[in-house]
Design goal:
It is built from 3 helices and 9 strands, in the order αααβββββββββ. The chain is α+β, with helices and mostly antiparallel strands and about 160 residues long. The radius of gyration is 15 Å and the shape is globular. Keywords: Signal.
């Protein structure tokens, strides 16, 4: 059973690596950024199962941010001084109407210092004073762009 589950996840990751770069956003950031985003999708595939995120140290207060979703933060990654595109500090989920959660984005979070950049994008002001954040909507299309902070397609709650 575990072997077939692993094969299925690998097949999905492989397919999404080639299909999603064009589906996520109509805006192109160039072949280098597209390749980097495909790598982010590949390493975050396992987090479609939210339990895997919990097992790997991501946790949340379950606060839903309208047009963003639920943020699961990994405290070991936040503030470690390393901004690694393949180790996002935050995973973003959209609550499903039938229960459960859909992985929609990753977020890179820097608690301070100089304003960083990844993927050729300068970080936005973050959720707390002096912090910086960059969303990458790698699992959910965003008409406002892959790196927009908000996505009108997710977490449309009051």
């Amino acid at each position: 059973m575990k072997r077939s589950f692993l094969i299925m996840n690998l097949a999905i990751a492989f397919a999404l690596t080639f299909v999603l770069p064009t589906a996520v956003s109509a805006q192109s950031y160039g072949p280098d950024v597209s390749k980097q985003l495909a790598e982010v999708r590949q390493v975050t595939t396992k987090y479609h199962d939210i339990e895997s995120a919990f097992e790997d140290g991501y946790d949340t207060d379950y606060h839903v941010v309208p047009n963003m979703g639920i943020h699961l933060k990994n405290d070991d990654l936040v503030g470690n001084g390393i901004l690694d595109p393949l180790a996002p500090e935050v995973l973003v989920y959209d609550p499903k109407k039938n229960g459960g959660y859909k992985l929609v984005a990753v977020e890179y979070l820097s608690p301070g210092g100089e304003r960083p950049s990844l993927f050729g994008q300068e970080f936005d002001d973050g959720p707390f004073p002096g912090s910086y954040a960059l969303h990458a909507w790698v699992w959910q299309g965003n008409p406002d762009g892959v790196f927009s902070a908000f996505n009108p397609n997710v977490a449309n709650v009051e």
